[in-house]
Amino acid sequence: xxxxxxxxxxxxxxxxxxxxxxxxxxxxxxxxxxxxxxxxxxxxxxxxxxxxxxxxxxxxxxxxxxxxxxx
Length: 71
What we know:
This protein has strands spanning 2-3, 24-26, 47-49, 64-65. By secondary structure, it is mainly β.
């Protein structure tokens, strides 16, 4: 699990793609406006926490928590 919540993040670095065994990514309470493209390269990811961001677009994921966004 990697938690990057509450960091005022607007994007994620491409280097996160090296975390091929990452299963849970917590990026709640940031300033993301879309699901960062690097997320799609995380082949073991099963859970993605995104609530309290500024998300406007969605894609298919196994688990997706998107409460408190303007969708």
